Automatic annotation (TrEMBL):
<protein>
    <submittedName>
        <fullName>Uncharacterized protein</fullName>
    </submittedName>
</protein>
């Protein structure tokens, strides 16, 4: 369940400008 949140943060960080 928490993995979903971590994945979102990881992707967000990569797409962050």
């Amino acid at each position: 369940m928490l993995k979903s949140l971590q994945m979102r943060v990881y992707i967000s960080s990569r797409f962050e400008r």
